[in-house]
Amino acid sequence: MGPDPQGEPEFHPYHHPAAGWGAAKSVSRFLVRERALVDGPRAIMRMNHENTGFDCPGCAWPDDTKGLHLDICENGIKHVTWEMTNKRVGREFFAAHSVTELFGWSDYDLEDQGRLTEPMVYDPESDHYVPISWRAAFELAGRTLRELDDPNRASFYTSGRLGNEATFLYQLMARELGTNNLPDCSNMCHEASGRALEASLGTGKGTADLKDWEATDALFIMGVNAASNAPRMLTALAEAYHRGAQIVHINPLVEAAATRTIVPHDFTDMAVLKSTRTSTLNLQPRIGGDMALLRGMAKAILEQSGTDPKALDQEFIDRHTAYFDKYRAVCEATSWDEIERQSGIDRDGILKAARVYRDADRSIISWCLGVSQHEHGVDTVREIVNLLLLRGNLGREGAGPSPVRGHSNVQGNRTCGIDHRPSEELVEVCGIDPPREHGKDTVATIRAMHRGDVLVFVGMGGNFALAAPDTPYTYAALRNCDLTVQVSTKLNRSHLVHGRRALILPCLGRTEKDHQRAGIQSTSVEDSMSMVHLSVGMKRPASKHLLSEPAIIAGIARAALPDSGTPWEWYIEDYDRIRDTMAQALDGFEDCNRRVRLPLGFRIKQPARELIFLTPSGQAEFSAAPLPDVVPAPGTLALGTMRSHDQWNTTIYSDNDRYRGIKNLRTLVFMNEDDMRERGISEFTPVDIVSTAKDGSHRNLDGYLAIPYDIPRGCAAGYMPEMNVLCAIGDYSVQSDQPLMKHVKVTIAPAG
């Protein structure tokens, strides 16, 4: 069993353009393997263009604003086809395989069994999952929640695939029960971005939209592997290059998306194999060195302002910002030697980037997890805002901060209430008296389960057991629960790492028709740039026993809150009713039932884009944090975890990573050749990796294969979720509470 026929591991540095025929061939092989060569693409195209809309459950890149008819990508096709599989996992499968046996299967093999078809409950005597009716499943979950001596002994997790309507009901249920324990995938990914933007600008979101990307003079892309994590960004990069914009990629690895692309919907370029550059400058800071690089760019701009009055937008600074003098002082006090040492970039390289920024009238800075998953992630994102403020790159077309959310509706989840630190405005809704104290985020939930303080864990989508850090610790925490409930479309590791009692509740996929009393329902989602639009499935459900996510939440809520005045059942009859309530409760959702049906939906207003700053000072606030020391100690490397190309979050499509030249291998570590030579390591040498946590404890992975790669000295990289074991549960940022997935301190030596 496995994603590909077993073969010898191979490494061939990849020099072909991103997307293009490589993507077309990869998609074709995948569709043949999944027996969906015709049905898969045809269904995707129908869902995209024959109804009121369909939102790919993959990344959150915005829909094309100009009516592009092929606004799909390699990973989107794979993601949707993976959901639409004809394979099924029913009671016969669970009768044939115990949980102990299934735990020994690969994660690929688990998901490859197909779609879950009916609710199941774990039977400890037989070690098998057995069928349970929906009514009995709801009663088990509801009774367990009712009998808790404290509602804070339950925690309600969501991944980014949950639609807005289900999200709103989910947080309402948790708060009516009496807890703000609402951990989500943002706690592991972009929490730093939200907190930084909130502190600097008074909004937790970026201000730039896709039209700004189409108008900007300079794009700075930081810590993003666009070809894999947001493939449709390649179109924006190619168009920007064609119109003469400068494109600067800042990443320890020069990824395929930072070189060239052939956009598949450009038929002429595909026919003649004509590629387009996607960068005008590539800089490779050390892992964690982004903040120092940004500080160097700001320092250069400030130094130029002494002789060049146009280097700064002084009028913007005076009218719209606070604490500029403190920031100027900290930049002046930071030496160039320290900037070069911490960034890993020489002064000449930093000045090149600063020159691009100085010469551009309008600039956008975009970033992803390579920036946020660090101890100093909040400070780094605030430094991004600092740099933008220096030249007034806010509140006008073609400019602003633009975080890249890598999951379909993670931004919508936060907008619609999934937040363990809710605002006062959010909690005063729907006729309930919810708790005001902060709840537990992801790391706090895991630690509380491990201690026995949280006894019920509900996972709404995702694969929590694999996505979280410190894998053995997380496994032990989940197994310490009285009840775990997983709402899922496919079998995954989180069903096998469960509490003393466990439920698998299968839900509709986004590709499927959602029939309710008022007819086929739509769900809304929010993309990375705050556009909210509808998504409607077109496929017949994989099983007649599936329920929608809103219906599952309502069923649990009614069982747990039998006397609730919330009209749970009435909401499920027609999701417009949920949206009507959301329009009253959520700022920016006014009149949403009408506006969400407009072409491309509607954009939630960002006050900072209008130069309205909801900060204590009422202005955009410069920050003046000192540079962190990110230079590894002698003999130590900074390791960052990442996806392979043929992977989506914890879902593995194959053991290949085309853009990095890898075939038939995931248990690897990318290293700088000089670091390998210093340690007596050659290509494909088995190595042992040992991480050292903040508390001095160690974790290890043995027998991984070393691959020489173009990565700065002192740095290494490898794949999640396999390497999540190296990140200790206590190694999280004090600024954002995010696990330090991109900055694990390790030693690497030949195996044995």
Structural features, described:
34% of the residues lie in helices and 17% in strands. It is built from 30 helices and 33 strands. The strands form ten sheets. A six-stranded mixed sheet has the order 6-5-18-17-16-7, with helices on both faces. A hairpin with a 4-residue loop joins strand 21 and strand 22 (531-535). The model has no long low-confidence stretch (mean pLDDT 93).
In total, the number of strands is 33
Number of helices: 30
Largest sheet: 6 strands, mixed
C-alpha-based Rg, rounded: 25 Å
User: What share of residues is helical?
Assistant: 25-40%
Shape, per Cα inertia axes: globular
Q: Structural class given helices, strands, pairing?
A: alpha/beta
Percent of sequence in beta strands: 15-25%
Q: What does this entry show, briefly?
A:
With 752 residues, the protein is an alpha/beta fold. The chain contains 30 helices and 33 strands.
Produce the secondary structure layout:
Blueprint lengths: L9 E2 L6 E2 H14 L5 H11 L24 H10 L4 E2 L1 H6 L2 H5 L3 H6 L2 E2 L3 E4 L4 E4 L2 H13 L7 E5 L5 H14 L13 H11 L8 H4 L4 E5 L3 H4 L3 H10 L3 E5 L9 E3 L4 H6 L3 E2 L3 E3 L6 H15 L9 H7 E2 L1 H10 L2 H8 L3 H13 L3 E5 L1 H4 L4 H14 L9 E4 L6 H6 L8 H4 L14 H10 L4 E5 L3 H4 L3 H9 L3 E6 L12 E6 L8 E2 L2 E2 L2 E4 L4 E5 L13 H12 L7 H6 L1 H11 L6 H4 L6 E2 L16 E2 L15 E6 L4 E2 L2 E2 L9 E2 L4 E4 L1 H6 L7 E7 L5 E11 L6 E5 L24 E7 L2
Parallel strand pairs: 2-10, 3-4, 7-16, 8-9, 8-14, 9-12, 13-24, 14-15, 16-17, 17-18, 25-32, 29-31
Antiparallel strand pairs: 1-28, 5-6, 5-18, 10-11, 19-20, 21-22, 22-23, 25-33, 26-27, 29-32, 30-31, 30-33
Helix pairs in contact: 1-3, 7-26, 8-26, 9-20, 14-17, 14-18, 14-20, 23-25
